[in-house]
Structures are given as C-alpha cells and as structure tokens.
Amino acid sequence: MRTFFATFIGMAILTGCATPTTGAVPRGEGLHTVTRQGNGAWVSTDSLKTAAILESDAHCKRDGKGVKVIHTKEIQAGPGRWPESEVLFKCE
Fold first, then answer.
1. Which of 15, 29, 42, 44 is most buried (CB neighbours < 10 A)?
2. Per DSSP, what are the bridge partners of residue 74?
3. Rounded to whole angstroms, what are the CA distances from 57 to 14, 18, 28, 63?
C-alpha cells in the first residue's frame, strides 16, 4: 500500500510540473522552436505536433509572415516522461 501511495503522489507531482507549451523560443538566425508536452501518457505526439505547428503559424502571422517548418521531433511517453513534440521553424 505504501508503494502505491508513493507512486500516486509522484505521478501527481510530475503532472503538476508538466509544461503544456514553451511558446515561440528564439534560437538565433531567424529560427524559433515551439515545444508542446502532453499531460498524460494517453496524449498522442501527432496532436501535440499539430498544436505546435498551429502555434508557430500564429506567431509568424503576428508579423504578417508565413511559417516554414524546418524540423519536427516527437518523443513518446515513457517511464518518467510525458509525450512531447518540438517544431523548429522560420517565419518568411
């Protein structure tokens, strides 16, 4: 019972620390990244990637530009981590 309780508390703490999005983070040379993280193992990396691309597009549209996706990276959920998708992009 103690192990179950400790595991439950640990998972609750990790859930509270999950970052849903980083926003557009400048990386230099006109590049930016947006990282989206799910708040549970059941969240698909495809849905996170779609949300990150939409956020990237909205960031570029604020400057009247379009988004050019350079690279995407998906990390599946695993022991001790939630699923995550990262989009590297440039506004043109």
1. 44
2. 85
3. 29, 23, 18, 10
| pTM score, whole prediction | 0.76
Q: Which two tokens stand for residue 16?
A: 């509270």
The rounded mean pLDDT for the chain is 85
| CA 29, 70, 17, 78 torsion-angle sign | negative
Tokens of 21: 């999005």
- pLDDT at position 32 over 60: yes
Q: What is the DSSP string of 17-78?
A: H--SB---EEEETTEEEEEEE-SSTTS-HHHHHHHHHHHHHHHHHTTT--EEEEEEEEE--B
Q: Residue 79 is which amino acid?
A: P
Contact present, 71 and 13 (Cβ < 8 Å): no
Read off the tokens for 35.
Answer: 């990282």
